[in-house]
Amino acid sequence: MQRILSTQLAQHVGKTVTVAGWVHRLRLLKSVAFLIVRDAEGLSQVVVKEAKMLGTLTEESVVEVSATVTRNEQAPGGVELTGPSIRVLSAVDVPLPFELHRPALSASLPTQLDHAALALRHPVRRAALKVAAAATAGFRTALSGQRFVEIQTPKIVGSSTESGADVFGIDYFGRPAYLAQSPQFYKQLMVGVFERVFEVGPVFRAEPSDTARHLAQYTSLDAEMGFVADHRDVMAALTRTLSVMMATVAARTRVTTPKVLPEIPAVSFTEALRIAGAAEGEEDLAPAHERALGEWALREHDSEFLYVTGYPMRKRPFYTHPDPASPAYSNGFDLLFRGLEIVTGGQRLHRYDDYVAALAAAGEPLEPYRGYLDGFRYGMPPHGGWAIGLERFVARLLGIANVREATAFPRDLHRVTP
Amino acid sequence: MQRILSTQLAQHVGKTVTVAGWVHRLRLLKSVAFLIVRDAEGLSQVVVKEAKMLGTLTEESVVEVSATVTRNEQAPGGVELTGPSIRVLSAVDVPLPFELHRPALSASLPTQLDHAALALRHPVRRAALKVAAAATAGFRTALSGQRFVEIQTPKIVGSSTESGADVFGIDYFGRPAYLAQSPQFYKQLMVGVFERVFEVGPVFRAEPSDTARHLAQYTSLDAEMGFVADHRDVMAALTRTLSVMMATVAARTRVTTPKVLPEIPAVSFTEALRIAGAAEGEEDLAPAHERALGEWALREHDSEFLYVTGYPMRKRPFYTHPDPASPAYSNGFDLLFRGLEIVTGGQRLHRYDDYVAALAAAGEPLEPYRGYLDGFRYGMPPHGGWAIGLERFVARLLGIANVREATAFPRDLHRVTP
Questions:
Q1: pLDDT digits (tens, 9 = 90+) for A383-392
Q2: How would you class B11 by CB atoms within 10 Å of its CB: exposed for 0-12, middle for 13-18, buried for 19 or more?
Q3: Bridge-partner residues for B386, per DSSP?
Q4: Residue A208 needs a FRET pair 20 to 30 A away by CA distance; which of A5, A298, B230, B371 works?
Q5: Which three-class secondary structure state does DSSP give residue B20?
Q6: Do B70 and B13 touch, CB atoms closer than 8 A?
Q7: In this structure, are residues A9 and A79 in contact, taking their beta carbons and an 8 Å threshold?
Q8: Residue A158: which of B40, B407, B417 has the nearest Cβ?
Q9: A62–B379 C-beta distance less than 8 A
Q10: CB distance B151–A382 less than 8 Å?
Q11: Is A344 annotated as a binding residue?
């Protein structure tokens, strides 16, 4: 018999159907037992009159149940399954390290991560990954609608550029190579091919700090676009993208998403320092400053998002385009979401000579950047882009304190399994 | 003035517009010069009466041209730009290693790959990447429509499993780790969470062979689904997916795509040997056999696709589910496209004890698989899935001989740049 889903039961009242899923919970009462079966869409309640029918059935075993759909206002969804026959597809014969049927997982995070394949079945953990999937789908929909072309770029690179310290080394057929810390250079080169490109892919940071915000591998939602006047064109494209991402999350999940204003408020770095009450000479925003800015944006503009533009050049990577009117400041921006930076972006240099000068000024050798810079010799338009850290975005959206709970199998300083 | 695209020119006849792009070609005639500007969508022809206006302008420089749109039946698209003013956004002042405006790139493949940022601008190279983007989008659309949830899994793993030899080693915070050769184990574990999952991501093979078919990094289109009866449910889902992939490529590009029959013909491995004229005892299909099968499927079934099912267990990975009726053969399949295998899939083992037995039979230790196998202790339904190699798929679809031309920045035994 064709299996149906828990959410389809109400359409089959009075009929015999087959459901299948995991034993979410077993409730053995005096005269009756309830078997709660969990499938991809929800729960089904199966009424079992003869407890011996359950045999040695344990939670998380996989079962197929054929039974009659019966109305019962007390049951979840108003229906339950009666007169069942039960077939066990996979029996669980070891004790579970923790229970899945409570509203929250009681196990510590390390225990959850050790048993990720089990912990991720909990509705709260599942929901975070569904939000990540929806946000990613929205990102792609938004960009495809704005003429961006999807690309796939190398994750193994020949030289460690960007921030040399936090890079993983590889043995590449006996030669040294590295895991890419971002698709930055490749997405810029691909602006020369498609004008507008995006990539969703893993990036790798050999981040030695063990914090609630850092992962050794995370998913980066990257975009880059050519023929911009300056960073404001990039911000406008990002705002449209963010709006579609939120709409997609709202449509596909039960999460209430924040409003994205058609024009997200923007303040310059120097204004931001003043608003946050920071000292005038500061060169970056501390977490407390970002929080203060988040509160200010909500209060003054009714916005949970805020752009901060014009960060000092000294604090931005060498490929950042300076503000032509004020070259100590950049055409770079951050996007704060509820007082936390979740996107970094900006206009990039586009002329070869400017790159040579910027690397010289930074005291960096030209050689490791050769393959990247050659592309700029052959004509690149003014361009810019951004990168969204998916796990941080999801964590911020759902109020998850540790980014490890916003990904399936996190990698960090101490963890490389499962 | 707002820039318009080359494809929009015909809507602006008689008006002054701005286009921007790369100098695709300069044609200097006796009394007039033609400047062909290439943008993301196509070409614009600019008529330049005074040759000196072009100054030292060179091909691939980036320009912005304001001019009047004028009808001319001889011009591409029936319109050209007259009375231009030209602004150079990025000047190219080095000789190009090859010309881009010929119908085919004349440079050797290594030269093209050395200068990938330039070579990829050629319409033929661009087209292959656009087909890859469309196929990928179709893959996701098809699977999202069949209740599959997108996942992101680790590319850094703690133990080298699958095919130990061809694995890249990493220095992971001073400990050994490896680049994932596939998301196989993770997508299986995620069946326990979402029932149906897919992933589009890079996989890594330290493949020591330098062939036209191998890449050290390629893009794998992976799917895995639970609650299947056997591999035929997986094949049905793959067929639907393939059909949407082809429709998406046809809709988004100029490529004529092959028909995907609602039911792709399938032959068993033993039948396949007979059809291909191979010796009865063979344990795998040689390339010549696959080609013969491709011709047979076209002739007998008018299909460019053919499933071969029931490969011998000895030739399939340990997690493959045997055919219950004939346990020396597997519930695994390959999909041939024009006589070449482009998809491998099948039903997997789903019970912990079966995994322990299969590893013992293969003479493999249990320990490296511990993190993976634990998931199977906690209840997994019968399941199966497949992996499509994106670059091979695109190469086969477009008749590209070397898979390196179906990706932007290939990685192989000899190449780790640009």
A1: 999 999 999 9
A2: exposed
A3: B223, B345
A4: B371
A5: strand
A6: yes
A7: yes
A8: B417
A9: yes
A10: no
A11: yes
CA distance A286 to A268: 15
In angstroms and rounded to an integer, the radius of gyration of the C-alpha atoms of chain B is: 26
DSSP label of B329: B
Taking Cα atoms as reference points, which of A273, A271, A373 lies closest to residue A318? A373
Q: Out of A89, A154, A378, whose CB is closest to B217?
A: A154
Tokens of B261: 């029959």
Name the residue with tokens 């089959």: A12
Residue of A409, A414, A415 to mutate for B, most B C-beta atoms under 10 A: A409
| The 3-state secondary structure of B211-265, one letter per residue | CCCCCCEEEEEEEEEECCCCHHHHHHHHHHHHHHHHHHHHHHCCCCCCCCCCCCC
DSSP state, residue B296:
H
Q: Which residue in B3, B90, B93, B205 has the most chain A C-beta atoms within 10 A of its own C-beta, making it the best mutation to test that interface?
A: B90
Q: What is the pLDDT of residues A13-61, one digit of tens each?
A: 999 999 999 999 999 998 999 999 999 999 999 999 988 889 899 999 9
Contact B90 A195 (CB under 8 A): no
Residue of B nearest to A148 (CA): B40
Complete edge-to-edge strand list for the sheet that includes strand A175-179:
A156-157, A175-179, A169-172, B169-172, B175-179, B156-157
Q: Is A205 annotated as a binding residue?
A: yes
pLDDT for A1? 66
Q: Do the chains contact at B378 and A227, CB–CB below 8 Å?
A: no
Place of tokens 């070409």: B43
- A–B interface: beta-carbon pairs under 8 A: 240
| ipTM reported for the complex, 2 dp | 0.97
By Cβ distance, the residue of A39, A159, A227 closest to B3 is A227
Domains of chain A: 6-90 (2.40.50.140), 119-406 (3.30.930.10)
Contact A411 B154 (CB under 8 A): yes
- Tens of pLDDT, residue by residue over A322-381, are 999 999 999 999 999 999 999 999 999 999 999 999 999 999 899 889 888 989 999 999
Structure tokens at A282: 């500061």
Distance between CA atoms of B138 and B154, rounded to whole angstroms? Answer: 24
What is the DSSP code (8-state) at residue B53?
G
Residues B39, A195: C-beta atoms closer than 8 Å: yes
- Residue A192 has its nearest CB partner, among B121, B227, B377, at B121
Count the neighbouring beta carbons within 10 Å of the beta carbon of residue B150: 21
At A61, list the tokens. Answer: 């075993």
B22/A186 Cβ within 8 A: no
Give the integer Cα–Cα distance in Å for B188 and B223.
9
**Cα separations in angstroms, A29 against A57, A99, A117, B156, B311:** 15, 19, 30, 47, 50
For B16-46, what is each residue's pLDDT tens digit? 999 999 999 999 998 999 999 999 999 999 9
Greatest extent of chain B over all pairs of C-alpha atoms, in Å: 83
Q: Which residue has 């069949």 as its token pair?
A: B146
